[in-house]
Amino acid sequence: MLTHIDEKNRPKMVDVTPKSETLRVATASGIIKMNKDAFSAIKTNTAKKGPVLQTAVVAAIMGTKKTSELIPMCHPLLISSVDTDIVELSEISAFKLFVTVKIKGQTGVEMEALTGVSVGLLTIYDMVKAIDKSMIITDIVLESKEGGKSGNYLRA
């Protein structure tokens, strides 16, 4: 039986009441590829809309915190920590964003990490789309998770 469908085949939010609070951590990542002009504008901090990477970090944190408002079956969570990292992939004119979310709670934070990455990358797109509308957001994945009944996961 699917966990988000009840016995009458109606959508439902999973009841996490019986679950114990444990430390849960999830890391997700994604890549945004662009032309050299957009990449250069971001690196040199000359994009007209302001500091792109710093704004993307704030957006990733905000997206993480708003996940339950965007994804219907996600629980609102009291997130303990959101950490971000952005890696330059200069050989392909791209940036890779990592978001790590931590909570002591009854449910995992994979969706929060994935949403944070998505919103952060969309923010980069928004801020330099005047330079390059052909940017590609790709490879949004769960890198790892710790805690909970299903245990740990590490992308191979």
TrEMBL record:
Substrate binds at residues 73-75, 111-112. InterPro entries: MoaC, MoaC_bact/euk, MoaC_sf, Mopterin_CF_biosynth-C_dom. It is an enzyme of class 4 (lyase). Residues 13-148 form the Molybdopterin cofactor biosynthesis C (MoaC) domain. One of its GO terms (molecular function) is cyclic pyranopterin monophosphate synthase activity. The active site is at residue 126. CDD domains: MoaC_PE (cd01420). One of its GO terms (biological process) is Mo-molybdopterin cofactor biosynthetic process. It catalyses: (8S)-3',8-cyclo-7,8-dihydroguanosine 5'-triphosphate = cyclic pyranopterin phosphate + diphosphate. Pfam families: MoaC (PF01967). Keywords: Lyase, Molybdenum cofactor biosynthesis. Its EC number is 4.6.1.17. Belongs to the MoaC family. Homohexamer; trimer of dimers. Catalyzes the conversion of (8S)-3',8-cyclo-7,8-dihydroguanosine 5'-triphosphate to cyclic pyranopterin monophosphate (cPMP). This is Cyclic pyranopterin monophosphate synthase. It comes from Campylobacter corcagiensis.
